[in-house]
């Protein structure tokens, strides 16, 4: 029988995903729950972890646990101080935080922060594990989301990164007066094509956003295309901002599920950029396995 080496936990805002992993990084079992950080009551994190992993704890009482994501945030189980950029597996593993009073070996990945030369400051939790898990030595990673990250890797380390609140802004604008003319189904991709054109019209993003309403009123944009229009317009603005910060790469390494993968791939391809994508659960597990091997 294969002996497990550790339990890998990806504990985000809305979900908990756990894997029982052997010494070679193979998955022996998986578990998940809806007990995301935002839904766990004060003091409820030990019980939430036990509920997801109880059979493994019973069968393997001494198995260590390594957790990444918002579980280490100020609203999580224990706040794990950030590791500063540049940060690779060694620097991050050296800052793994042991959960006090847990009754077992439970550690939290610290997350990473970044101070730019212009004084801008940025933070992330969870994406650092995914970035390492890609195995990318040098290049530019894009991780779309509510607070999407663009990460510059150098020599296998997170050199610097920037956050774009594209997902949160999309949700807010879609629910606003600008997005009110949207109708189900939101499947008219002509809206995305129109947004790609609108993104290149002078006047900036806030002018472009109102075009979702104005073009719908004019009949240029079908109601089913309003949300695709808004999505693509915001993604175009994000990509333009990221390229302004990091320069134009030969390849953008994309970590995303659908529908973000398709939206970003189309927008990047239209700019002539090659896209290489990754499976998010796989690289998260790879990153946790890497950090487990590097821990002291």
UniProtKB/TrEMBL annotation:
Lineage top rank: taxon: Bacteria
Residues making up the signal peptide according to the UniProt record: none
InterPro entries noted in UniProt: ATPase_NBD, DGOK, DGOK_C, DGOK_N
A GO biological-process term: D-galactonate catabolic process
Keywords: Kinase, Transferase
A GO term for molecular function: 2-dehydro-3-deoxygalactonokinase activity
Name of the featured protein: 2-dehydro-3-deoxygalactonokinase
């Amino acid at each position: 029988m294969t002996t497990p080496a550790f339990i890998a936990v990806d504990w985000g805002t809305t979900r908990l995903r756990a894997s029982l992993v052997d010494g070679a990084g193979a998955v022996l079992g998986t578990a998940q729950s809806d007990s995301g950080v935002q839904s766990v009551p004060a003091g409820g994190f030990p019980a939430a972890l036990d509920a997801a992993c109880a059979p493994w704890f019973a069968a393997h009482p001494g198995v260590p646990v390594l957790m990444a994501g918002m579980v280490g945030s100020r609203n999580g189980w224990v706040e794990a101080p950030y590791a500063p950029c540049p940060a690779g597996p060694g620097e991050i593993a050296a800052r793994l935080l042991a959960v006090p009073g847990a009754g077992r070996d439970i550690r939290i990945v610290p997350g990473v922060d970044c101070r730019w030369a212009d004084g801008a400051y940025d933070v992330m939790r969870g994406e650092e594990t995914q970035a390492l898990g890609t195995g990318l030595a040098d290049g530019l990673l894009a991780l779309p989301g509510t607070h999407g990250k663009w990460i510059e890797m150098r020599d296998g380390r997170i050199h610097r990164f920037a956050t774009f609140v594209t997902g949160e802004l999309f949700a807010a604008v879609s629910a606003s007066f600008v997005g009110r003319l949207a109708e189900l189904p939101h499947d008219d991709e002509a809206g995305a094509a129109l947004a790609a054109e609108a993104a290149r019209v002078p006047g900036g993003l806030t002018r472009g956003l109102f075009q979702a309403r104005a073009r719908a009123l004019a009949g240029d944009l079908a109601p089913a295309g309003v949300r695709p229009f808004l999505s693509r317009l915001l993604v175009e603005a994000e990509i333009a901002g990221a390229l302004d910060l990091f320069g134009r790469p030969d390849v953008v390494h994309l970590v995303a599920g659908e529908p973000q993968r398709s939206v970003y791939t189309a927008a990047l391809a239209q700019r002539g950029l090659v896209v290489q994508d990754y499976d998010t659960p796989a690289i998260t597990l790879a990153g946790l396995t890497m950090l487990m091997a590097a821990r002291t």
